[in-house]
Prior knowledge:
This protein is mainly alpha-helical. The chain contains 14 helices and no strands. Mean pLDDT is 81; it is low at 39-44.
Amino acid sequence: MADGWRHWLTRWKEAGFxxxxxxxxxxxxxxxxxxxxxxSGSRRMRWPVIAxxxxxxxxxxxxxxxxxxxxxxxxxxxxxxxxxxxMLLVFHGLGFLVHGRSHGFTVTFHxxxxxxxxxxxxxxxxxxxxxxxxxxAFLVWGLGGLAxxxxxHHWPQFAVLALAFPVWxxxxxxxxATRLGMTVPRAMEVIGCGSALWSLVYFSAGSSALKxxxxxxxxxxxGITLIPSVLFIAVNWRGSSAAQTHWGLWTLGWAIALxxxxxxxYWLHRERAWVTAAFAVWVxxxxxxxxxxxxxxxxxxxxxxxxxxxxxxxxxxxxxxINLGMxxxxxxxxxxxxxxxxxMFGRSxxxxxxxxxxxxxxxxxxxxxxxxxxxxxxxxx
Length: 381
């Protein structure tokens, strides 16, 4: 079935359903998809092989780092520097050695080399007793990921870049804000809001013009971090207080987060740059409710945000957004039940009500989700 699309494309052209321009666009899309599948090795490797490579890479990297750590205190600075450089040379060298023979091994060894780069950056400063500057260390690591991505076009290097870049900005802001008197918890509240914004931007990459590898990396990172970022904002209502907020530094942090998120969204999908502004307004209102300890509005805002994400996915025909929005709504209902409802009943009644909620509510939500996905399929056909 590798050439199945060519057969159907020919039939539809002969039947007059497709013109030459549309057929050319379909051909270019399918050829790009085949090239991506070939480059990623997913045609040649089943999931047990991928799992074995991932586990082997993690075990090898952990073993090397453990060996270096166990002999670190006894080694002089020159030997420490040689060990750090040796990790980079060995891992990347093995990647180039197996290049063209096994794509999976190539990606694994270069991924270990990119991870070792981060360790090398931090350990080099420790070896020579340099003044700690963690934000710039993340910047150097991210630039290394960028260089690796431009040279190799492998997804682990792009993932390093996508993760190190926001961590660098967040670290710079935290260091600057704490130097001016803002406490770390207050700075982390602003960083949580920025993380939610960036997560949505990453998660929206599926409808951008990026290459398939970059799309998948950003979508996975955004999908994994979006709900925890919003949850981090929402659960801080007990310890937050608007009176304790440094509004000048708070505004600066918000300006940086919004500017970076809007710039990324404009680069990824300029027609949807307004989505960033709309989500930023929602996050601002959510944090305002948290700062004023308005618990019920926090739950309502979380439910509304999950519903908006579902609508966003339906509007742009993206199933993953519908699924994540549904998951966010279910989590909101569960948190509300355990925090506000469960204590109203006895132990047995609370469990019975929870079971009914899972069975009846879960069935209705899944039915609604399937109807939405089916409507997308009908709309695309």
